[in-house]
Amino acid sequence: MKNNKTIAIAIILMMGLFVTSCGDAGTTKEEHGESEGHDDHGAEGTVSLTDLQMETLGLKLIQLEKRNMSQEVQVAGSLKLPPQERADISPLIGGIIKKIYVIEGDKVRKGQVLATMQHPDFIQLQQDYAAEINNFQFLEKEYQRTKKLYEEKVTSAASYQKVKAEYNTSKSKIASQKIKLNMLGISAKNVANGKIASFVNIVSPLNGTVSLVETNIGAFAEPMSKLFEVVNNKKMHADFMVYEKDISSVKVGQKVYFHTASVPNKEFGGTIHNISPVFEENPRALHVHAEISNNDGELIPGMYINGRILANNIETTVVPDDAIIADENKYFIFVKTRTPKHDHDETEEGAHKEVEKTTFLMVEVIAGLKNAGFTEIKLLNNLPKDIEIAGSAAYFLLAEMNKAETEHSH
Of all helices (H) and strands (E), which one includes residue 143? Predict the structure, then answer.
C-alpha cells in the first residue's frame, strides 16, 4: 500500500511540474494573457487536480451519507473449551497396555477404542460374576422352596429368614458385579453365557481429537492415571474480559469479531451467548462468552485473542476510510468547491490551452466510530446538503496541497 501511495504522489508531482513548465520555457504571463496577480497555487488549504490526475488516483466525487454504525467495544481474552468438551481418560483398575490405536491429533468418535488393557484381575472379576450367577440360581430355587414350606408352617421362621438373606445378598452382588463389568466395557451378558474376555477396551467418551497420549505398549496403567486426553475443539468459545465502563453496552446476541497472532490474516466471528454475573476483582471486569461461527480447526484452546464487540447501532454521517486523513492530531476531509479553477497547458504544437481543474478545500471534522470500511464524522460547521467530497485519496490530496503551499512560500 505504501508503494502505491509513493507512486501516486510521484505521478502528481510530475504532472505539477509539467503544468508549471510553461513558465520555465521563457513565456511570460502577459503572453498567456494572464494578469500579474494570478496565483497558480490557489487559496491556502485548497488543492486542485485535473481530470487526468483524478482518474490516475481513482478519485471519485461522493456525497456525505447516513449509515447505521455499531459502537465497538475493544476486548481481549482467550479461547476456552467448556468442561463437558474435554475428557481425561483413565482406567478404573490397573492393567498392562496391550495395544494403542491412536496418536495425538487423530480424530475419534464417541465409543471408539483408543487402547486395550489386560490383567489377571479382569479374568477373576468375570469368573466371580459367572460363579455368583450360578450360586444365585441355586439360592433362588432354595428361597422359593423354603418360602413355600414357611407359608405351610413346615419350617421355622429362622430358617426362612436365613435363606432369604442369602438370596438377597447374592442378588445384590450380581447387580454390583454387572455394573463393574459394564464400567470396564465388558459385556455382562457374554460373561453370563460363558464368554470370558481376556482384555478390556479403553474408549473415547466424546467426539473430538486426541490431544494427549501418555502411555505405551507394555506399560502398567495405574488406576485413575491419565492415559489419554480428547478435546472437541468445534465447541470452543471465545472468553473475553469486558471492563466495568463498557458492561452496559454489551448484551447477549451481539456480534463479535476477533483475531489471533497464530492466524494473522483471518478474522473470526461469533455471537455472545453468555455474560458472567460475577466481577473479577483484578481487573474489575466480567467474562463474556461467545460462540465462534467460523472455526475451521485453526484455533487451539488457550490462544490469546483481541477483538471487538459490535454494541449499540446508531445512524450517523460517514465517509469511506480513504476519504479522511489525520494531520497533526486533527482529522480532515476534502470538499469540492463550487468555483472551478483554470490553468494552462502546452499542446504538442506549442500552443496553450485552458485546463479545468477540480478544487478541493480541506475541512476539519471529528472522527468517530470505524466499521466495515467507513468512518463516522461530525462536522464542525454546516455544509450544503448536496456538497461533494473526495471519496478517496485523502492522503495524496494532503501531500499535493502541502507541496503546492511549500512552492508558493518560495
Answer: helix 120-151
255-260 and 330-336 beta bridge pairing: unpaired
| Per-residue confidence (pLDDT) for residue 201, from 0 to 100 | 93
**Is the pLDDT assigned to residue 200 strictly greater than 90?**
yes
Query: Which amino acid makes up residue 302?
Result: G
Outline where 83-119 has alpha helix (H). Answer: none
With beta carbons less than 8 A apart as the criterion, state whether 209 and 108 touch: yes
d(CA 98, CA 320): 65
Question: What is residue 195's DSSP assignment?
Answer: -
Please return the burial class of 354, using the count of CB atoms within 10 Å of its CB with bins 0-12, 13-18 and 19+: exposed
pLDDT digits (tens, 9 = 90+) for 93-136: 999 999 999 999 999 999 999 999 999 999 999 999 999 999 99
When the candidates are 2.40.50.100, 1.10.10.10, 3.40.30.10, 2.60.40.10, the CATH number that belongs to 86-231 is 2.40.50.100
Residues above pLDDT 70, as percent of the chain: 83
Closest CA to 360 of 331, 406, 394: 394
pTM of the model: 0.57
Reference 184, options 170, 208, 202, 164; nearest CA is 202
Strand bridging mode 352-371 / 374-379 = antiparallel
Give the DSSP H or E segment for 208.
strand 208-213
Q: What is the pLDDT of residue 20?
A: 37
Confidence of residue 18 (pLDDT cuts 50, 70, 90): very low
DSSP string covering 294-311, please? ---S---TT-EEEEEEEE
Domain range summary for the chain, segments of one domain joined by + = 2-69+315-409, 71-83+232-312, 86-231
- Yes or no: is domain 2-69+315-409 CATH 2.40.420.20? yes
Q: With cut-offs at 50, 70 and 90, classify the pLDDT of residue 350.
A: low
Q: Which residues of 375-393 are buried (b: 16+ CB within 10 A; e: fewer)?
A: bbbeeeeeeeeeebbbbbb
Assigned C-alpha cell, 342 = 483554470
Overall fold of domain 71-83+232-312: Elongation Factor Tu (Ef-tu); domain 3 (2.40.30)
